[in-house]
Amino acid sequence: MSSKRKGLIFEVDITGFTHEARGVAHHEEKAVFVDGALPAERVKVRLTKPHRRFDEAEVIEVITPSPDRVEAKCAHFGVCGGCSLQHMRDSAQIDAKQGVLLDNLRQLGKVEAEGLLPALRGPLWAYRRRGRLGVKWVPKKNRVLVGFRERGTLYLADLRRCEVLDASVGERLEELGALIGGMDARATIPQIEVAVGDEATALVFRHMEALSEADRERLVDYAKQTGLHIFLQSQGPDSVCRLWPEHGELFYALPAHDVRIDFLPVDFTQVNGLLNRDMVDLALNLLDIQPNERVLDLFAGLGNFTLPMARRAAEVVGVEGDAPMVRRGQESAERNGIHNTRHFVGNLFEPDPKQAWMQERYDKILLDPPRAGAMEIMPFLAKMKPKRIVYVSCNPATLARDAGILVNEHRYRLVSAGVMDMFPHTAHVESIAVFEPK
User: Fold this and answer.
1) pLDDT tens digit sequence for 78-117
2) Angle at Cα 76 formed by Cα 75 and Cα 82, nearest 5°?
3) How far is the C-alpha of 6 from the C-alpha of 427, rounded, in Å?
4) What is the predicted pLDDT for the residue at 3?
5) Could you give the CA distance from residue 205 to residue 202 in angstroms, rounded to a whole number?
6) Residue 298's beta-bridge partner residues?
7) 80 counts as catalytic
8) Which residues partner with 364 through β-bridges?
């Protein structure tokens, strides 16, 4: 029965919007989730995936458009899966993301924010400094595709350019395809990792077989022509090595705090460099660090927050699970002339109360966990009794869960929360929340 319904065309009114940026409608007493639809629209759709309890569909015609609908800037929008909201006015995107955050706090965390922070916004285009580009040699087309997957499939989209990637890479997708297409290893390069610093862009070519000398020369010649830094990766992240230039640095600066952070192309850094600067400023302002205070920075990474906070605090203790990043964070502090930080390796998903840093008291705490959140460490934070906690989140669901733990189990208030548009034109929600004891 389901297979017979696939491809069915019908009209619906869009009455809601999912956290994955799909319109919600109802047809024949079933919910229908519609790619490409916005709230308050009437659309003609094609059923793409029938299910027993709900259906999935795609827009084939907008009959009554939303006032928030705009023309997508990218010619590949709707095919490429990299963006899902280019058809939505940027201010409406912000409103939708705020709604996602508040819904998660209420429904998952059973908490209400006492105040809503103004949305933090940055550049809308060419903002993306990190990315993983798929690479595929397609014999039938006699060329190599470079880019992101098609929406809802495992196939690479046939892209000419990307409007959200930094222009040093986003305008070179066809060029990169032609480069790899001329290599002996065209069929054994599956991906390119992109890492953009303030003054240089690095590309890490993953290769499944050893590169011929001719291929290495092609890559070096391309690097010399473009100024791009080229790295090679034969196995895991530890195998990444520089090809050209022989020496060079990737870094980003936080000018307001007189901090420069060096990084390797496979290190975690924030996707949106300019918004990151504003995010650091916002977090420090919300923490309101005083000169005599000690601050704990959890999931500290390379020191994105640790080093700026050290400019204001008596001492900052940074804890991170990845030992090489802890080492580089410490080295970065030394290069910046910062001597009031201590850096620890710690598995924050399996906290060990015996660790030295866990035995200490802190006036303020900042945490910036990965998507899994910080549930395991929350009870320990509450026992430290900080005067303020600032939580930076890349997943509103785990932020809501952890907020519920602090508020409902450990007598903290959710003073304020808000979104930061780290990933414009996508459904990704970056947010920040402030907690204080009741």
Assistant:
1) 999 999 999 999 999 999 999 999 999 999 999 999 999 9
2) 135
3) 26
4) 59
5) 10
6) 319, 367
7) no
8) 295, 388
Record the tokens describing residue 162, joined without a space.
């990307």
Structure tokens at 310: 């050290």
Given this chain, do its domains 2-69 and 130-196+201-244 carry the same CATH topology? yes
CATH class of domain segment(s) 2-69: mainly beta
| pLDDT tens, residue by residue, 194-227 | 999 999 999 999 999 999 999 999 999 999 999 9
Integer Rg of the chain from CA: 24
CATH code for the structural domain at 130-196+201-244: 2.40.50.1070
Residue of 74, 80, 162, 394 marked catalytic:
394
- Dihedral angle of Cα 174, 422, 121, 194, to the nearest 10 degrees: -30
What is the pTM assigned to this prediction? Answer: 0.94
- The CATH architecture assigned to 94-123+257-437 reads 3-Layer(aba) Sandwich (3.40)
